[in-house]
């Protein structure tokens, strides 16, 4: 039978098996099956360590039957069969109710798959699926390495293994596979051919076979992805943009003159970088990442001022109304009369700074939209309201997206599309990004980094308050907060949810880490509900913080109420603000020096770093206390200790990546599809990814580009048309 990578699995495996693979593993074609690599390899004498198995995990183990005991159950009719299996590293129980499996005899070897359960502190499989190794399996199972595949309840690892073997037999080997990588590239990097790599990954003889095959197959993933991103960079460079060169005597000079501090070396360097790109005809596409408090907003404001000086408009998209209003206030204050052109006290040489949010009254909204449409508003700050129909720009020259991870693909595109010609784009994030992630997820953007903090900042000291191990520390935490307030300063108390039976609110469910997975605490599955703002505020008013001026802030308040409460805190009227993560980004109150994060174990690493950045934004030293019930010796306790132990956001970003599923970094969670990354590790393969990026750029720049490499072009086309590519393009 003629087989190609695009052949439907039903033609090779039969309709029943193909349907199960499609429904449970999303494997549809021969390519899908061959790219479904083993998770690991088992050998007789080396069982998955029982200590490593977690309750709830679905795993496959290679083991030998040690004992089989059947007995009548006491509490109900029927028979219980307990099978003890082991393989050097320990033993575990297989439990069958009212089922006798005569083939499970002492000494038999087999693969056993199931979901790990627990009974009386012992791990066990209840009714596991299994496949015993018999003489019929000699060719497959007598091998030194037995592949264990990512499987499902309906499709076991051994079914996948037999399917790969059937594919081999049906096709006469993997000779039908055409290698998409150019021969000279393979030679440069010492890579196997694709047919050889696929054979070695699925049917290896030695661990070296697996390593060489893995290296080659990682290149397939890295190069295809980098080609997609390199093509987008080239396409963006060819877009017909509008140059916005720097002028003199305008807003930019006014901003520089009004700054109450000297720019850091990093701010100056990035500013020059942006100024040069804005002066070009091709639109800028740049990611500006930096430490919390490193002064990204000032850099963005200077870029916006340059565009306004050149006759264009700049739009700043913020994720919350609180942050948008704060940006509008600070920009207006910095520009002074130059932000009020057309008003009695305004400077006619200036422009208007307009705030556009969903909570504006109808008259104010109409006035703001009119100023945007006629071009008198040079700087427009807003939330998602900027994206609505009816918001039309006269000449949109620059789009600045603050805290880009809060926005999706469609939102970014919708704002870009409001320009008559493609505008320059500056994407900002205060969540530092590991270099490998910047080269993949953000690979279609050029990257600038701000590490240096402005002088005069007090810095933040962080400590974990492990209430289970040291309950008295929580009392001391509230004493420290009172001491700071007594010295004339202010404090935040952050809680995971709002309260008053608020289940289901986006702000009130268990906090998520950056990949959308709820954070686990000390290992218990039945922990109490997360602490709530309303409950904690009331307890503090009546208890350890009695007599202080306490207020609350959360997402269920009206925009007007949120704004009023933030103003009260910023002015010093409120001494302690008990809030959800609505204060996570952008809130700037220099007098706030203490933050107490309740249930800190329920927040992600990057989120904790962001929250901590809200204090010590003035001259006074700050304190961040991470309160948790997680034991110090648990993985969660150690994670919090790592957060407290460093203020380096880039180091924490790497830790954050280590604690979550890498594939979701590329948007599998957002698209609902399987991860693009199967073997490539964003943590371990930095050099390979960098090399693939360089090769991709070179391939597109020489000769006919991908037209000279049809196999590679087909792989790129497959990824580029995948819905995951939408996420990659603008994530």
From TrEMBL:
Residues 501-515 have a biased composition (Acidic residues). The keyword Ligase does not apply. One of its GO terms (molecular function) is hydrolase activity. The keyword S-adenosyl-L-methionine does not apply. The lineage of its organism: Bacteria, Bacillati, Actinomycetota, Actinomycetes, Geodermatophilales. Signal peptide: none annotated. NCBIfam families: PRK10917.2-1. GO terms for biological process: DNA repair. It comes from Geodermatophilus normandii. Residues 277-450 form the Helicase ATP-binding domain. Residues 497-529 are annotated as: Disordered. This is ATP-dependent DNA helicase RecG. InterPro entries: DEAD/DEAH_box_helicase_dom, Helicase_ATP-bd, Helicase_C-like, NA-bd_OB-fold, P-loop_NTPase, RecG/Mfd, RecG_wedge.
